[in-house]
Structure prediction request, 547 residues.
Amino acid sequence: MSAFNQFLMQLINGLNIGSIYALIALGYTMVYGIAKLINFAHGDIIMVGAYISLVLLGTGLPWWLVCLLTIIACAVLGVVMEKVAYKPLRKASRISLLITAIGISYLLENLFQLIFTANPKPYPGFITLPPIVLGSITISSNYYITFIVSVTLMIILNLFVQKTNMGKAMRAVSEDEGAARLMGINVDTTISLTFAIGSALAAIAGILYSNCYSPINPTMGSLPGIKAFIAAVLGGIGSIPGAVLGAFILGMVEAMTKAYISSQFLDSIVFTILILMLILKPAGILGRNVKEKV
Amino acid sequence: MTNVLEVRDLGINFGGLRAVDGLNLDIEENQLYGLIGPNGAGKTTVFNMLTGVYEPTDGTIKLNGQLLNGKKAHEIARLGISRTFQNIRLFKDMTVLENVLISLDTQADYGLFTGILKLPKFHAQEKAMEEEAMSLLSVFHLEGDAHKLAKNLPYGKQRELEIVRALGTHPKLLLLDEPAAGMNPQETQELMDTIETVRKQFNIAVLLIEHDMKLVMGICEKITVLNYGTMLACGTPDEIKSNPDVIKAYLGE
Prediction:
């Protein structure tokens, strides 16, 4: 394979992992924007989505129904998580919320370990189409399906947030919850909706991720979850375009590092980016300026 | 005349502090009512209780005969009490038009799915709402700024936009918390004229907190004076001006 082809392959790899990070990062950033909470259990929704879809596939349901049911189940899980664990703490300090989120994360991981054991389970690549051949490189369907699905969802999400009244309500709540309430917006419903959307996106990410990277295990969500969190911070947490941008940058950095530097240093390079970003520009690339008028 | 707002024996404790005690208010339809008092008298606390931000410790609040106690802030907003804030709290990163649409949206009667699926009913209503938003903005001559971000408006216009946004919920009672704060005398005069217009045009009652005595005395039909959370006096501007307790509270002995 020529050097140029190899570079192209890495580009495609980067777009693939970047779009998965983007789907997860969107959930992080939306929830942060509205509830001012870093939901560390968000990554585990990917794992839940992967297992639910695996079980449903075993029942012989058609693939689209499997996806739909998985998405609904994860959206419900997200809403329940908010109602049970986070809503009672809405007036508590941020650190309590953060610790609760970590607790939920461990709860989900261990619960699934209990049910499915810690052994990795093979995941059937059930969404397959013919590969695309471009000259001497072949792009398998996993790659372009992931990319197309993610980008489509991002566009829909953006339209939803910009154009619909629910989307406007979400933006209003994220700017000033109190004022939004006094303009007649039901803040609780808006927060539930945000968790539902974020978790639905994570479910889709879970299905796509497992399709590309079988087998699955109960802790599979934590690393992509943390990477997506880094992507959200990189782009500016709370910003939707920021999360997408951060995710694609991170995906590219990962792919190029793996190919040209060292796959062993992969994670340390990614975390170094996080640390540098927090030192140099804590608000992120597209983040709102955190300076407050006195 | 029927009362839009009826407040009886309203009181609230913050821990051991009695912030407001035994407040009665009767606001008639289309009345311009002033709530005045020295700093820390509890005026904004009253606003917060009327809008459901704080739960009163005792007493009742009724809007057109309907009890508001225990209702959530967004429910009260939908029932017809709307407000502006002492420190401007617009949705700064949204456009001027969107700020108004937010409050109009809460009055819309299509469901989530109609909105997502963009059904014809949604489109018709969306268009109607945008027209209404623009006509509300034009009352304050803000229609030319509709597509600017709210944070890019000059201060005076931001204050006016807050009033437009508050009108978007179709209130029966509009609460204005120091609308003239930070304005020069000429801007203040213009604002007062606009409040008068709004009251007549939309046929709503207005409850006003204001420090500018000349202004309050000039336009309010009835005034309640608060001091240390209790009602010091209540009456027409002339009665208030000549009330010895009020003079004492404001000027000292």
